Amino acid sequence: MSRLEYALALGAGCMFAVTAGARAPAAVEIEIVGRDGGTFREIPVDSRDGAVRSYLQAEKGARYEVRVRNITGERIGLVIAVDGRNIISGGKSELGRDEPMYVLDAWDAQNYSGWRASLDAVNEFYFTDWRDSYAEAFGDRSARGVIAVAVFRELSPPAEDARSESAGPQPEPPPVAAQSARRAAKSADAARRDESAGTGYGERRVDRAVRVEFVAQSQPDSRHFIKYEWRETLCRKQVLECGEQNRFWDESKLGFALPPPRH
């Protein structure tokens, strides 16, 4: 059973914070898997900001789940965002400790399969064109095509400290008028954006969760970013080697002009 916490007892205004020391190895292993358990193709890339980054080949219409395995002997908190939206609240995510998060037990593994609709159900993730994505319904293009996970270690709070629960951040209502104006003025760049990959708000399925108490440390232990794209986009970006290769004549190294986008 997935476990989640809708409100942290100690948020941004807490009386104390933990100073991060030397970073330990990553506390989790993360995969993007299909409903059949198979994994989507992932290509690691270098990162200069300490985060773990990779590309992923998306398949149009495929349902997917974010599988996280806790490889430590303690509970951890997971703030998960898809296309910049927190998958529990639906609100815009900054991957902060004050957001709704899932709590994963020591040595446990869980699959997170959709946008949480209640403590009993989620609406499934599936790869789709950006114009059909959940984030685009809110006019939020700030993190399109990115699955993000921030991992938080647990902080034991003082026994006498009073706590309260709240409903946590709520989804923002779609700014309909602003969306209409933006869509009426689409440029060629916007057209390309509409053809890029996004995550839809799929069918509802039973996926029960319970509220638990968890106080996160002030800074994430690690951050993970997976940029998913259609195969043709990964080929165009030369993330994948596509087409037939000639071992005696590599045109990519001859200095020719590259074709414009969409050619």
Helix proportion range: 10-25%
Q: Which regions contain 5 or more consecutive residues with pLDDT less than 50?
A: 5-23, 161-168, 176-188
Proportion of strand residues: 25-35%
Shape, please?
Answer: globular
Report Rg. 20 Å
Give the domain tally: 1
Question: How would a textbook summarize the main sheet?
Answer: 9 strands, mixed
Notes on the structure:
The chain contains four helices and 16 strands. The protein is mainly beta and 263 residues long. The protein has one domain. The strands form two sheets. Strands 1, 3, 4, 6, 7, 8, 12, 15 and 16 form a nine-stranded mixed beta sheet that branches. Strands 2, 5, 9, 10, 11, 13 and 14 form a seven-stranded antiparallel beta sheet that branches.
